[in-house]
Design a protein that fits this description.
The longest helix has 6 residues. The protein contains three helices and 15 strands. Helix content is 6%, strand content 51%.
Length: 248
């Protein structure tokens, strides 16, 4: 049984969508991942919510990737009218992105609460604190040769992307004793804000898609449908435009 955890966060958005995405067995080979493909730096942008023909900007996000000799650190932040204020940090081993640590700090909104995980090759352990202060301790065996859900976007951006490529990504959340597989396909190349990007889609009805810069491997746009009729878009600020406020 999975332990309790925050309802939603930017880093664990894919985990919240797992029931619509995951398979017990992958249809394709796992991706070939190399974190050295990533570009360090800060990227920020806007959060848009689409309902039918209505599109509303609800907030902003910021992402920073730092590359160390043996680790990759990604910090993701949200400042949003609907989702609240959130900061997530992922620490993975380089170049294979196996998990080392993960933290979630929800300061307000439906994601309020904190999560702290540490990983070794066999287990994940830590604690989850709800918004009302209730603490749940976690210590569970984890599947080998699988990536933590919070690292999904990093793994995707670090993969060997090319036209028509497919992969089955073995992922897990703390409490899972076996991996679930998310099948992805490189659907083509599209321009986003004058940048050539690979469009990577999941084989599901969730409308989960990523537009990954072909040169820098930064994610210029990501979409997901957490509810029927609702599409959330994380859109990077255009080059040369005024960046959205940093939510950190």
């Amino acid at each position: 049984m999975r332990p309790a955890r925050p309802a939603l966060s930017l880093a664990t958005l894919v985990s919240a969508l797992v029931p619509a995405l995951a398979l017990a067995q992958g249809l394709h080979a796992p991706p070939r991942v190399d974190a050295r493909r990533l570009t360090p730096g800060i990227l920020s942008g806007n959060i848009l919510v689409v309902r039918g023909t209505d599109t509303v900007r609800t907030g902003s996000w910021a992402s920073e990737i730092a590359l160390r000799k043996d680790t990759v650190i990604q910090t993701l932040g949200i400042n949003d009218d609907v989702l609240g204020r959130v900061v997530d940090t992922v620490i993975d081993r380089s170049p294979d992105l196996q998990p080392i640590g993960y933290s979630h700090s929800g300061l307000s909104g439906p994601m309020a609460g904190t999560t702290r995980y540490a990983f070794d090759t066999a287990r994940g352990s830590g604690s989850i604190t709800s918004a009302d202060g209730e603490v749940t301790r976690v210590d569970a065996r984890r599947p080998r040769k699988a990536w933590h859900m919070a690292s999904f976007s990093l793994v995707l951006a670090s993969s060997d992307l090319r036209e028509g490529a497919t992969a089955s990504m073995p992922m897990f959340e703390v409490g899972d004793t076996s991996a679930v597989f998310i099948d992805v396909t490189v659907a083509g190349s599209e321009m986003v804000q004058a940048r050539a990007c690979w469009k990577v889609v999941t084989d599901s009805l969730s409308q989960m898609a990523f537009w990954i810069d072909r040169d820098t491997r930064t994610i210029r746009r990501r979409t997901a449908a957490p509810l029927p009729g609702v599409l959330i878009i994380f859109e990077a600020a255009q080059a040369g435009a005024t960046a959205a406020p940093d939510p950190h």
